[in-house]
Amino acid sequence: MTTRFDILGIGNAIVDVVAQADDTFLSRHDMRKGSMTLIDPEAAETLYATMPPGQESSGGSAANTCAVAAALGARVAYLGKVANDQLGTVFRHDMMAIGVHFPSTPLYGGASTARCLILVTPDGQRTMNTYLGACVSFSEADVSEALVADAAVSYLEGYLFDPPAAQRAFRRAAAAAHAAGQQVALSLSDPFCVDRHRAAFLELVKQDVDILFANEAEVTSLYEENSFETAAERARADVALAALTRSEAGSVILRGDETVEIAAEPTRVVDTTGAGDAYAAGFLAGLTSGKPLPVCGRIASIAAAEVISHFGARPQIDLKKLIRSV
Fold first, then answer.
1. What does the H/E/C string look like for 168-233?
2. Which fold has domain 5-322?
3. Are 307 and 314 within 8 A, CB to CB?
4. What sign has the CA pseudo-torsion 174, 199, 276, 54?
5. Segments making up each domain of the chain, as ranges
């Protein structure tokens, strides 16, 4: 079946602010390195005022995936909630400028557009402090069933799963996708997200998800297993396709009885922000264009390696050229 879009991302529409900081800065602000913490508007203003200068751009996990997928040549759409304010306008313009269809209606009144303040330490680890703002108002009403039906894969961002309204929106999107014969992908996003909603995530994975993206910490948290291998086998049983990343150890792709191991691409790690997002983008761009799993995994690995070789979660060189020989 021919669709208008290869990928429809659904997630938190956030303006990212990425800055370099040392471990002392994290300690002074009581931050746990490598974690994602939700903060209130006052904390967001205070941290923004004290953190070093940084790069600002439209972001959020699924939005980053959409941006990288578009850079790879995929046809991409995105749904996420921004406010009718300056940052919301910036977010919309950025997404449309990179070729991502963004039809979501902005929020009038209420919370402002979300922002994520990201501190990157010299070891490349990113520590995220997120003010969700308008994101928490995303609901079933924001899910266009017609748009979902017109995308080969609807890609759901685990970070959005916190509000009950968003959980209902996920289920509506999944139902619409399957009714149209399309696929649903889910990124677990963060082990802390999984810890907060493990039962609901497990139900969603088993009932509504065709393609699961997770890193080692996330998948072991989901299944409460100490062993990656055991958690991976449980994922194999629950979904049609699982793509599980293991940092420098590469990734493992599972489909039925098939197991494909993908080596990590050699690169200098500068900033791990968006590594998983870029991996999902490369994998889905390959999958929706009919590539075999080893090629999908290689494209995913190349995209992730490019993103972590510099600051920021968006590619800085032509990804199409990078994957031309794959």
1. HHHHHHHHHHHHCCCEEEEECCCHHHHHHCHHHHHHHHHHHCCEEEEEHHHHHHHHCCCCHHHHHH
2. UDP-N-acetylmuramoyl-L-alanine:D-glutamate ligase (3.40.1190)
3. yes
4. positive
5. 5-322
Residue written as tokens 């299944």? 223
Considering the entire predicted model, what is its pTM? 0.89
In 3-state terms, what secondary structure has residue 262?
A: strand
Angle at 36 between CA 94 and CA 308, to 5 degrees: 60
- Closest CA relative to residue 197, chosen from 151, 161, 148: 161
**pLDDT tens digits, 25-34:** 999 999 999 8
For 273, other C-beta atoms within 10 Å of its C-beta total 28
Pick from 150, 114, 71: which is nearest to 313 by CA? 71
Helix-then-strand count for the chain, H and E? 13, 14
Q: How far is Cα 79 from Cα 128, in angstroms, rounded to an integer?
A: 22
Token digits of residue 306: 């490019």
Distance CA(42)–CA(49), nearest Å, equals: 11
What gap in Å lies between CA 139 and CA 137, rounded to an integer?
6
Torsion of CA 265, 246, 203, 296, to 10 degrees: 20
The CA distance from 166 to 172, in Å, is 10
Tens digits of per-residue pLDDT, 230-247?
999 999 999 999 999 998
